[in-house]
Amino acid sequence: MSVRLTVEKLGVSYRGDGRETEVLKDVSFELRAGERLAIIGESGSGKSTLALAIAGLLPPGSRVDGDVRWPELERRPVNGRDLGFVFQDPSSSLNPVLTIGEQIAEVARAHLGRSWREAYEHAEMLLGRVHLPDPASALRAFPHQLSGGQRQRVAIAEAIAARPGLLIADEATSALDTIVQAEIVRLLEELVAEDGMSLLFISHDIALASQIADRIAVFRHGRLVEIGDAGQIVDAPREAYTKSLLAAHMGLDTPSLLAPEAVA
What we know:
InterPro entries: AAA+_ATPase, ABC_Ni/Peptide_Import, ABC_transporter-like_ATP-bd, ABC_transporter-like_CS, P-loop_NTPase. Keywords: ATP-binding, Cell inner membrane, Cell membrane, Membrane, Nucleotide-binding, Translocase, Transport. This protein has 9 helices and 9 strands. Helix content is 35%, strand content 26%. The chain has one domain: P-loop containing nucleotide triphosphate hydrolases (Rossmann fold, 3-Layer(aba) Sandwich). The strands form 2 sheets. It has a 6-stranded mixed sheet, with helices on both faces. A 3-stranded antiparallel sheet has the order 2-1-4, covered by helices on one side.
């Protein structure tokens, strides 16, 4: 598989109140075409900053060192066209005063050059692909008329409307209940496989990530501390911090993902 994204020695600092805070430090990795890479870490580990840096969405005044390259493109990526972004809160990407159909159709018009009629047909098809009941009716709905899980499905449909090469899901399931989380993960797996997209799946939940990822990258305090195949990270982690994340994954009726003897 070809390399779709290269991150090399990436560093990000935020400026404010007369000081500079480093939030990402010397991060390097590659993401291949069709690959699913999970970015795991606690709150404040730099996961979301990494996603924003890749998408070119960092706030003004941020300092960026290192490089983000797109070997397959001969230009800078266009958000919405080359890269789709699904946020934790779909309200971040959905306009409350426009219908669902208008919002998805606008992406098709802007990036695919479709007429309004073609764009609406494309939007209805996408709502079917994300398994929203009665797509034709959903086109006429406003975001507040849908449940949280349905709004997230709409946000995914909007993110993939122009068939981007990379889909970034930043904590896209963390605000949903467990059953809906599992449904969204299965949906992302399905769409990525069908469209040949690469997926950057950002989560604090290493168990959830292990279900969808080919590889897992573990972040702590803005640094990439370990990266490897999902099976290797779960079954034979090298770093003590990764072992602690695995050992901490204890549900009420779920055993730890990590064998007791592996915790050291």
